[in-house]
Amino acid sequence: DAGVIQSPRHEVTEMGQEVTLRCKPISGHNSLFWYRQTMMRGLELLIYFNNNVPIDDSGMPEDRFSAKMPNASFSTLKIQPSEPRDSAVYFCASSKGGPDSPLHFGNGTRLTVT
Amino acid sequence: GQQLNQSPQSMFIQEGEDVSMNCTSSSIFNTWLWYKQDPGEGPVLLIALYKAGELTSNGRLTAQFGITRKDSFLNISASIPSDVGIYFCAGGSSSNTGKLIFGQGTTLQVKP
């Protein structure tokens, strides 16, 4: 079990640039979640997918944020244009879905927008 | 929206001591989970609870799902230096998706 794989591990970019974060969920998991972690707000759910379909994107802060899941093994979170307040650690997590299936997290992407 | 209140916010204890932390909510949850996060890594699942009143152990860790479904606690016995980290509670209320709401975390430091 390779676990949830995220890339890049670190991203430093300038304000206004486009940022794309990538996630490969655990094989066989059909639910995928994007979380953002900051000191002030803790872990916040941004969006989640079931069977590649976005179910709830109410946590996405603004239209600058978008997420896609083109297939069961890949998802992206895009920020365009990026702003300094987007600086945070972004986690992807996956699960088999359902109430008895806990989330398994990747190691995150630390994003710094200058 | 749903919120979890986790306490204490931080703890600094001596190696060998027992630790207790808890989460409460004004909302009912169907599942409670406890995660630990080490620096530079994602949260790792420690214990999952699926029934009200359930008491589950994982080595030196013990967690309980409150009978009211609005709270949970995590105990760590005989703490060791590698217990250092941030502990998060998480509640799940959706019956279909596994969507979780996280507490603010308890930072644990253990003095050798």
Greatest interface and its residue counts?
A: A-B, 26 and 27 residues
Order of helices and strands of chain A: EEEEEEEEEEE
Individual helix count of chain B: 0
The average pLDDT score of chain B comes to 92
Structure description:
- Chain A is mainly β.
- Chain A is built from no helices and eleven strands.
- In chain A, strands 2, 4, 5, 6, 9, 10 and 11 form a seven-stranded mixed β-sheet that branches.
- Chain A is globular.
- The mean pLDDT of chain A is 94.
- By secondary structure, chain B is an all-beta fold.
- Helix content of chain B is 0%, strand content 53%.
- Chain B has no helices and eleven strands.
- In chain B, strands 2, 4, 5, 9, 10 and 11 form a six-stranded mixed β-sheet that branches. In chain B, strands 1-3-8-7-6 form a five-stranded antiparallel β-sheet, with no helix packed on it.
- Chains A and B meet through β5, β9 and β10 of A and β4, β5, β9 and β10 of B.
Write the layout of secondary structure elements.
The complex is a heterodimer of chains A (114) and B (112).
Chain A: E1 5-7, E2 10-13, E3 19-24, E4 31-38, E5 42-50, E6 53-56, E7 65-71, E8 74-79, E9 88-95, E10 104-105, E11 109-113
Parallel strand pairs in A: 2-11
Antiparallel strand pairs in A: 1-3, 3-8, 4-5, 4-9, 5-6, 7-8, 9-10, 9-11
Chain B: E1 5-7, E2 10-14, E3 19-24, E4 31-37, E5 44-49, E6 55-58, E7 61-65, E8 71-76, E9 85-92, E10 100-102, E11 106-111
Parallel strand pairs in B: 2-11
Antiparallel strand pairs in B: 1-3, 3-8, 4-5, 4-9, 6-7, 7-8, 9-10, 9-11
